[in-house]
Amino acid sequence: IVELTLFSNTYGDLVWNLNPFNVKNNVNGVGDIAWQDYNSMQDEALFERQSAYVRKIVREVNEHDSFYFEVCNEPFGDHPGHVNLRDVEAWQTAIRAIIREEESRLPKRHLIFQVPTERWRSDWPLDHMVSEPTIDGINFHDYHKLTYRGVYLPQTARFMQRDLNLDRINFLWTTVHDAGKPLVFDEDNSCTNGLDEESWTIHRKRAWTVVCSGGHYDMIDFSIQAAGGEDGTPASRAFIRTWLRHLSTFIHATDFVHSAPVRGFCSRVPEAAIAATLANPGQEYVIYVADRREIEELGSGDPMQGALAFSLPPGSYRAQLYSPASGGYVGPAAHLDGGDVVLGLNAFVHDVVLHITADA
Hints:
Blueprint: E1 2-8, H1 13-16, H2 44-61, E2 67-73, E3 76-77, H3 85-103, E4 112-114, E5 118-119, E6 124-125, H4 127-131, E7 137-140, E8 146-148, E9 151-153, H5 166-176, E10 183-188, H6 197-211, E11 216-219, H7 234-252, E12 260-261, E13 273-280, E14 284-291, E15 304-323, E16 328-348, E17 351-358
Parallel strand pairs: 1-2, 2-4, 3-5, 4-7, 6-8, 7-10, 10-11
Antiparallel strand pairs: 8-9, 12-13, 13-14, 14-17, 15-16, 15-17
């Protein structure tokens, strides 16, 4: 799936000075504004050009299927002395309307995703995006400080600080699951610039936790550079790119469409572990068990073992362990009966998946 991002925050003068919508860089005389005001309709002539650009893009890509539009990457508002957050929100609403109008005359329709507009140094509720029918999905970045229905959604990582934060990730996606819209952990960059096995292991665990909490995931892969190396480095192919393929292959072999995340499904987990669960009650369960300790904590990455305790509806089930690292099932399958279950886990490093399916 391709995310087609139409606009972006320009972050500062260095980037704004490269933008073709900056008056210094076009022959049309538009864009004589500060970079903080670019993602608004303050300059009418500039907005006309932005609108024409959006219509052109929408027409050119309409024949393709596997993509969605993102209105703007990391929009910010309420910079002192500049457009407020409501102005940025109104601009994004107008861009969505242009996409819808243009596609109404074309053969295909595509989803429109939006990143929550960041209020400068403050929290911002997610509720209005959930209830807005012209927003099909929400892209969430790890810097966000949001609330949903009065519940604070903790930040999932600090920028490039090697944070794992599996509990926070599970809490966020299970909390907003009832929104009924796809919520994507978009361009996770907790530590992808590390370009080493330790960093990629953090992202493998974050990716599995997101998916098994009902979300969608992508990350910035710094092993791919514009100057070459489009397939990534040999190390990245051997680790993170292979591991994400394992995740994709595994989850697409399950009936995830009819499954939903269940926070607290396991009443008992190994010490220092988290269990993120997708459940299709009575039919299928995916329980992702991971070492939740941060890399600086004592014992992080050491072998761990223990027991899982949970309850299943009446019936007969088949349970087998899957390795996110090797991409295959390990050990023999076990038979489980419905009711209260206590299942011992042999020693594992970092993570393991318990896959339970109802007997035919």
